[in-house]
Amino acid sequence: MKKQRLVVAGSGSTYTMGMMMSLIEEKERFPLKEVVFYDIDEQRQERNAKATQILFQEQYPELESFSYTTNKEEAFKEADFVFVQIRTGGLAMREQDEQIALKHGVVGQETCGPGGMAYGLRSIRDMIQLVYDIRQYAPEAWILNYTNPAAIVADALKREFPHDYRLLNICDMPIAIMISYAKILDVDVWDLVPEYFGLNHFGWFTKIYDKEGNDHTERLKQLIIETGFTPEDTEIANDVSWQKTFEQARQMLIDFPEFLPNTYLQYYLYPEDMVEKEDPNHTRARQVIEGRQKRVHDTCDQMIEKGTAKGADLHVDIHGVFMIKAAASLAYNSGQRFIVIVENNGVITNLPDDAMVEVPCLLTSQGAKPLVVGEIPTFYKGLIEGQLAYEKLVVESYFENNKQKLIQALTLNRTVVNVKKAKAIVEDLIVANKGYWPNYE
Ligand SMILES: NC(=O)c1ccc[n+]([C@@H]2O[C@H](COP(=O)([O-])OP(=O)(O)OC[C@H]3O[C@@H](n4cnc5c(N)ncnc54)[C@H](O)[C@@H]3O)[C@@H](O)[C@H]2O)c1
Ligand SMILES: O=P(O)(O)OC[C@H]1O[C@H](O[C@H]2[C@H](O)[C@@H](O)[C@@H](O)O[C@@H]2CO)[C@H](O)[C@@H](O)[C@@H]1O
Ligand SMILES: [Mn+2]
């Protein structure tokens, strides 16, 4: 098996240490010769890098080289894979997005509603630049992007790089939900075979099979409704906010029992209830700053001080394992099945060809090969079409420098709808995002 040169772009991320643990766990399936960290924030990167150096010395001694840099050429030259996990504006801007929306009485969330729109307009510019930079030095590298909001980023990147089949957008939410299914069914998550359709953070499981072809869907639905639904991945199992989200997914299933929902649909199906649950002074961004970010930073600082990873609060998580297994399938042409984001092109027959949809695909050395979904029922088609129009308007507004399209986008979005609110939110977000957004007149 060819050993890979992997670059992690946005290596100062709170997800990096979990990813490193997952690389160690998966080293037989995705062997590496070199790992390179790239970030624009030297300090943020250095903490993770110094801790990773210690971790790899102890648990990945066969790795030929580990380094970190803020130099693009150094980072991307001869890369086989680039995992991209950047957050333009950081968690501080995420907090503003969430608070501005809540101030207007609508959902304040990282990827949904006005928060997702604000974040999307910040991400597009940096992501386009980053892909150009990677392609300058590594024209053949696989780029696995999970920078959010993945739906908007995927649409913008498809516009800018229409033929780049080695650029793939990917989200861990479906597999994180499947871990909970696996727990309920008492099977290994990798033995489950899902059927799924939708947009990123806006989709449904239609069937859950096992590898022998047995259909577990109806029993699973019944068990969720009767016995409850909880997050099971180590990263989120004990997080109160995620526990509430999974409980709400159970409610969605009771209300619409036809298919099993992605947890993110709660923001679109019960927007007022979601607003009521929020404390504007302690939104999710603040919880992450005080929770995951603090935990990762403290862990790294302790490792660096002690000079060892022994006893460190580090664990393999589904986020990392999923990205790595997907990468291995691309690298070694194993054609394994993963839910990823691709251009529709007839996969969902009653949605437009150019929609970026999230569906099961076989990952091969020729890219993601989507499996046919066919026609979807009217209710889901209606919901998706509204959301798709919102996403497209956001992307068009970026490329055309068109503020009116942002107002149209929020008017279509189920979390806003009211035109007066849409206009006021757009004005506030323009001020808050000065320097990050296009200069809308
Ligand atoms: N698709 C998914 O399912 C999924 C899952 C988890 C996380 N994410 C995404 O991963 C990203 C990281 O999340 P986080 O909470 O760890 O954020 P974070 O702020 O902790 O980390 C992001 C890092 O990116 C760096 N960065 C910002 N702009 C950059 C640029 N232009 N070039 C290089 N580096 C840059 C920052 O300096 C920072 O170190 C976010 O976009 C998040 O939404 C996506
Ligand atoms: O609110 P956050 O920052 O905790 O989470 C936002 C992200 O949520 C999803 O990712 C989950 C992931 O599904 C799970 O496996 C585990 O790794 O935790 C993550 C959340 O911490 C979602 O798919 C991402 O797109 C969001 O950024
Ligand atoms: Mn996601």
UniProtKB/TrEMBL annotation:
GO terms for biological process: carbohydrate metabolic process. GO terms for molecular function: hydrolase activity, hydrolyzing O-glycosyl compounds; metal ion binding; oxidoreductase activity, acting on the CH-OH group of donors, NAD or NADP as acceptor. It comes from the Bacteria. Binds 1 NAD(+) per subunit. The active site is at residues 172, 264. The record marks 110 as: Increases basicity of active site Tyr. Residues 196-416 form the Glycosyl hydrolase family 4 C-terminal domain. Its cofactor is NAD(+). Mn(2+) binds at residues 171, 201. Belongs to the glycosyl hydrolase 4 family. This is 6-phospho-beta-glucosidase.
